[in-house]
Write a structure and sequence with these properties.
Blueprint (H helix, E strand, L loop, with lengths): L4 E5 L6 H18 L5 E5 L5 H8 L5 E5 L16 H6 L4 E4 L2 H6 L4 H13 L3 E6 L3 H5 L3 H13 L4 H4 L3 E4 L13 H19 L1 H6 L2 E4 L7 H5 L6 E4 L6 H8 L5
Parallel strand pairs: 1-2, 1-8, 2-3, 3-4, 4-5, 5-6, 6-7, 7-8
Helix pairs in contact: 1-2, 1-12, 5-7, 7-9
Bound molecules: 2-phosphoglycolic acid (PGA).
């Protein structure tokens, strides 16, 4: 059975103390308020990871992750962080292929495929992001764009490895803009993603794949988005920086 997941992406926000304090609030609220089997994942800047790992250890349903890794094992890559380093502090997820990394850091599908391999090798769950730009949506090419991102970034994986990946559909035009995809627009793409996965790996694996929606998701629209058949949770940017908002989104799955 596929999991419902609400993952926060803090991006490059919060200093060390602010991050630790927000995470403590989140952990306490999850303990008090989350009653379902949904998973809550917080992807913080790397500097917070080892401290928040201690706060989350032993807490059911709360996991932590990084926002990027380098594809190599180790070595002379000044400023970079490897999958094994992230794993060694107690994180178990990593966001890969976020549109900000694709756009600002020129991460290609081929590079992302290598990062996915590095993550899986070190038992990190990739939260693999795909999605079209505004221009690609308006020109009607978005299904092709998404299919290519899946094929080039992930479809080299064996079925067993693919089962360890979480997908996130994030239309670039909806990220940080306040413009959310409508539940119907998002569902249409999520169904397409699941169908594309089924063609490659079969129905059973496609049914078990968690596909999250991301892009201006907030407590007011989460319920309508998550009630769609193929939307299994969210990847939350801005609203994950407020414990109350983030928890209200996670609690949609309490019902
Ligand atoms: P947003 O960001 O919720 O602030 O739109 C989502 C993301 O970039 O993952």
């Amino acid at each position: 059975m596929r999991k419902n997941i609400v993952a926060g992406n803090w991006k490059m926000n919060l200093d060390y103390e602010q991050g630790v304090s927000l995470f403590s609030e989140i952990v306490n609220m999850v303990k008090d308020e989350v009653v379902g089997s949904q998973e809550v994942v917080v992807c913080s800047p790397a500097i917070h990871l080892s401290s928040i790992a201690k706060l989350s250890s032993g807490v059911n349903n709360v996991h932590i992750g990084a926002q990027n890794i380098h594809e190599a094992e180790s070595g002379a890559y000044t400023g970079e962080i490897s999958a094994s380093q992230v794993k060694s502090v107690g994180a178990n997820h990593v966001i890969l292929g976020h549109s900000e990394r694709r756009a600002f850091f020129k991460e290609t599908d081929a590079l992302l495929a290598e990062k996915v391999n590095a993550a899986l090798k070190h038992q990190l769950t990739p939260i693999f992001c795909i999605g079209e730009t505004k221009e690609e949506r308006e020109s009607g090419r978005f299904f092709d764009v998404i299919k290519t991102q899946l094929e080039a970034g992930l479809f080299h994986l064996s079925a067993t490895d693919f089962e360890r990946v979480v997908l996130a559909y994030e239309p670039v035009w909806a990220i940080g803009t306040g413009l959310t995809a409508s539940p119907e627009q998002a569902q249409e793409v999520h169904a397409f993603i699941r169908k594309t996965v089924a063609e490659q790996y079969g129905e059973a694996i496609a049914e078990d794949t968690s596909i999250l929606y991301g892009g201006s998701c907030n407590p007011s629209n989460a319920q309508n988005l998550f009630s769609q058949k193929d939307i299994d949770g969210g990847l939350i940017g801005g609203a994950s920086l407020k414990s109350r908002d983030f928890l209200d989104i996670a609690k949609v799955f309490n019902a």
